Amino acid sequence: KKLLAWQKTGFHFQPKKNWMNDPNGPVFYKGWYHFFYQYNPYGAVWGNIAWGHAVSRDLIHWRHLPMAMVPDDWYDINGVWTGSATILEDGRLVMLYTGSTNESVQVQNLAYPADPLDPLLVDWVKYPGNPVLVPPPGIGSKDFRDPTTAWLTPQGKWRFIIGSKLNKTGISLVYDTKDFKTYELLNGLLHSVPGTGMWECVDIFPVSKIVENGLDTGENGPGVKHVVKTSLDDDRNDYYALGTYDGETGKWIPDDPINDVGIGLRYDYGIFYASKTFYDQEKKRRVLWGWIKETDSENADIQKGWASVQAIPRTILFDKKTGTNILQWPVEEVERLRMSKKVFDKVEAKPGSIVPLHVGFATSQLDIVAEFEVDKVALESINDTDHTTYSCPTSHGAAQRGALGPFGLLVHTDNHQTEQTPVYFYISKDTEGNFKTFFCADHSRSSEAIDVDKAIYGSTVPVLEGEKLSMRILVDHSIIESFAQGGRTCITSRIYPMRAVYENAGIFLFNNATDATITASLHIWQMSSAYAHS
Ligand code: DQQ
Question: Which residue numbers delimit the Glycosyl hydrolase family 32 C-terminal domain (predicted)?
């Protein structure tokens, strides 16, 4: 019981109990951030999907409100599924969402606030003319879902996209509307990728190559790139690519047609799905929400009475330095939860060593910022180190030793390291002297329990000339969100330790490289809880 209670989060969003999945309709309205989510009011497993609702002033402290919409009409009786908010030119709000009908056909429905003057948007009205969109000819009745936020085209129409598939090709359809009641399907697709299967929760948004702030969904022009994202039902991960969106043709062309045609980059190399961005007009930023599921057994979820959390909302920017990826970073407001701080300056870890980091406070809620320097002599003198073969998921995790890695931190680790969750870098080098850096999280020893996921996650992370290696880790009980190089590569983990909890959990610096000495400097804050009021 105590173990199950420990898993509940201190500052990540979750309902008081029961099942949650996708983020829905995030929006800033009359001074409040609104967050809706796929919710089962009757249990800790998926089903009976309604829209949960919460509001916040700062994206961190949430107040739970009554459910916004429940499945109570023929056109959504099998579920009020995922949807998005659009703010109209006069400031009014509309919501488009997918309904699963009495015959389990996926249709799109329109809803709006009963009282637009209510900043809390407590009551919602479903448009009496629903459904407003049914699957077009040629599209399967169960392959038509998750409308995005709409944006105004230069022709003065609202445009949005919906995910689908044709045979095994994942596609996104494009629709125009003037009034959100009648719609026109555009010829041609925004994008499609053979072999990817059903595209869920598609997203499209602009990022700036010039300015440091986010862009509203309709913005375009020479200094703008467009991110297209899809959640692949077949492998349960969120993929994106950067490209150029042509407002005239409604088509998006990937920057890198060879690698990006498959939408090759992942928002997160751990557990992160069905994500959705919104433009925060208050702080002029683009913010990403993502669903973090459980990786324990369904039985355990039923026992604890809840399942899933949401990632801390992330600010998204184009990475001007690399030009090839976005940067994701926890919204700045999370830093207000920082309490006591412990600084470690230039701690040395010799090859094959573990150094305990005594912080003097509880370690189940932390914000860690760490920088690593790798011994220059080793970096220069080492030759070819499994440059072509290494990858985090196929490696033996933190136990696999190379000349220049792995090194990093062990979180939620007991004194004997029986249970440990390493988050680390691994550097490889080819015969020409080119380096490739990997960022990984190893769950193989995170829990002694047998019915939890123990995979090793991670990927490469771009590191430019002269840059130090850096990571940020948000630790919140059973959730760990890890960001490398300012958010170029991210890994979200769920862990279910049985020993390394409460006062038995600590943090360690480790260096399992065979040749390089590592010097680490860290700032570690204890994080306060973000109480949800009701
Ligand atoms: N979840 C919703 C769907 C969506 C899926 C149903 C993605 O609308 O495609 O709960 O997790």
Answer: 333-526
Ligand 1 touching residue 442 (CB < 6 A)? no
The answer to whether the CB of 201 is under 6 A from ligand 1 is yes
| 55-83: pLDDT as tens digits | 999 999 999 999 999 999 999 999 999 99
ipTM attached to this prediction? 0.99
The DSSP bridge pattern shows strands 80-87 and 93-100 to be antiparallel
β pairing state of 306-307 and 18-29: parallel
Cβ neighbours, 10 Å, residue 190: 23
> Rg for the chain (alpha carbons), in Å?
23
From 430, 322, 426, select the one nearest 374 (Cα to Cα): 426
Which residue reads 């320097």 in tokens?
373
Amino acid symbol at 480: I
The pLDDT value recorded for residue 262 is 67
Residue at token pair 């500052």: 11
State CA 68 to chain mean position distance.
23
> How far is it, in rounded angstroms, from Cα 52 to Cα 34?
11
Which residue is closest in CA terms to ligand 1's atom 11? 274
**Which residues, other chains included, contact 46 with Cβ-Cβ below 8 Å and sequence gap of 6+?**
19, 21, 40
200 Cα: distance to centroid of ligand 1 (angstroms): 7
Q: What is the pTM of this model?
A: 0.97
Residue 257's pLDDT band (boundaries 50, 70, 90)? Answer: confident
Q: In angstroms, what is the span from residue 23 Cα to ligand 1's centroid?
A: 10
- The β-bridge relationship of strands 224-232 and 199-208 is antiparallel
The chain-wide mean pLDDT, for the chain, equals 96
Query: Residue 527's closest CA among 298, 354, 368, 343?
Result: 368
Q: Which amino acid is at 6?
A: W
- Residue 399 is encoded by which pair of tokens? 């136990």
In angstroms, the CA 44 to CA 20 distance is: 8
Q: Which residues are 39's β-sheet partners?
A: 20, 50
- Whether residue 154 has pLDDT greater than 50: yes
The domains located in the chain, with CATH, are 335-527 (2.60.120.560)
Ligand 1 pocket, mutate which of 104, 146, 276 (most atoms under 8 A from CB): 146
How far apart, in whole angstroms, are the C-alpha atoms of residue 442 and residue 489?
15
Q: Of 93, 232, 230, which Cα lies nearest the Cα of 149?
A: 93
Q: Is 123 a catalytic residue?
A: no
Spatial separation of the C-alpha atoms in residues 504 and 506, rounded to whole Å: 7
